[in-house]
Amino acid sequence: MTELTTIQEIKQAVDNGLEVFAETMFYRVIKDKNGEYLIKGRNGHCVGLHGMEGTPYEDKLNASNFWHE
User: Fold this and answer.
1) Beta-carbon neighbour count of residue 49 at 10 Å?
2) What angle do CA 35, 6, 61 make, to 5 degrees?
3) pLDDT digits (tens, 9 = 90+) for 28-54
4) Closest by alpha carbon to 38, among 57, 10, 18, 3?
């Protein structure tokens, strides 16, 4: 297991085809057809990887523990 701590590390891992998880294996980080990075639960619900760009939250991740195996 390799821990990922920055938005760039997470995005790069996804772009490299690695399975990236947030918090538990229930939540996976994906890149959708629009090029947006999302945290997707097994139930299909999604939330953005980080706060909206152009806001004070754009550098805040929407989970605290990310990794890939």
Assistant:
1) 22
2) 70
3) 999 999 999 999 999 999 999 999 989
4) 10
Is residue 59 a contact partner of residue 49, using CB atoms and an 8 Å limit?
A: no
DSSP per-residue codes, 10-55: HHHHHHTT--EEESEEEEEEEE-TTS-EEEEETTS-EEESBSPTTS
Residue owning tokens 């152009």: 54
The pTM score is 0.93
Asked whether the predicted pLDDT for residue 59 surpasses 90, the reply is: yes
CA angle 33, 37, 9 (to 5 degrees): 130
